Amino acid sequence: MGLIYDDPRLAALTLTRIAAEESAGPGELAGRMHAVLDDLVQRNGAEYLKELVIVLARSEFIVLDELARVTGNSTAELLDAVELEALEDIDEGG
């Protein structure tokens, strides 16, 4: 029997929990995230990361879609806002 996060959906949840723990700011948990990813590649191969990325993107969309529904915005508006913020961070060197 493999580790619980050998399933891409559960691995995505594991990575999301780590991200939540480090949301106060990057620190030593970033190393923990890398360790989990390294372990996943070692156990399942590099192709596994493609599946993991797809699961994470779908999960993010589901969350944004639900947030849009609750706030009365469209999903496209929320995606645009997130994209603009990311672009501003890049412009600021962050």
Category by helix and strand content: mainly alpha
Secondary structure: helix percent: over 70%
Shape: globular
Low-confidence stretches: none
Task: Give a count of the beta strands, DSSP E runs of length 2 or more.
Answer: 0
Rounded radius of gyration (Å): 15 Å
Mean pLDDT: 84
Domain module tally:
1
How would you describe the overall organization of this protein?
- The protein contains four helices and no strands.
- With about 90 residues, it is mainly alpha-helical.
Structure at a glance:
With 94 residues, the protein is mainly alpha-helical. The protein has four helices and no strands.
List the defining traits of the structure above.
94 residues; 78% helix; globular
Task: Give the SSE layout.
Layout lengths: L7 H14 L6 H17 L2 H25 L3 H17 L3
Helix pairs in contact: 1-2, 1-3, 3-4
